[in-house]
Amino acid sequence: MFTDSEYYTSVNGLHEDANSNRAVQMLWVYNVKYHYIPFRIGHFMPNIEALWFHHCGLKKLAFENLHQFPKLIYLYARKNELEELKPDVFNGNPHMQWLDLKDNKLKFIDGEIFVNFQQKIWNLNLRYNYCVDKHFHG
Q1: Tens-of-pLDDT digits for all 138 residues of the chain?
Q2: CA distance 59 to 35
Q3: 135 Cβ partners below 8 Å, 6+ apart?
Q4: Nearest-CA neighbor of 58 among 37, 87, 27?
Q5: How far is CA 89 from CA 2, 14, 61, 67, 132, in A?
Q6: Three-state SS at 122
């Protein structure tokens, strides 16, 4: 469905009940190599509430990639190559409640990341990252 292109001009897929991309609320990507979440996906799927990038080689989560999903509640990015999260990474996602970044290479997470959320995070999984691994002496 996708290639690791910086910008997309269209997105095609099969939808139930004759729906369109505008009705899509969850995007699941598994074992497809992306270094970042592609730009403009939110343009074609403006109602995304959940993103799942599992084992995709993500190296970057940044404001410029995530602000296109203002309704985002769930972000699942397990088994990727993330090393850093900038303080503004979720500034465009005030409804975030579920964040799973297990099994990445995060070394540091700035507490400012969570300041702009309108609700409490009810699931935060950072296991198997350097920042929480008792064996990391950075």
Answers
A1: 444 445 667 777 667 777 888 999 999 999 999 899 988 899 999 999 999 999 999 999 999 999 999 999 999 999 999 999 999 999 999 999 999 999 999 998 887 888 778 788 889 999 999 887 555 444
A2: 5
A3: none
A4: 37
A5: 23, 31, 7, 8, 19
A6: coil
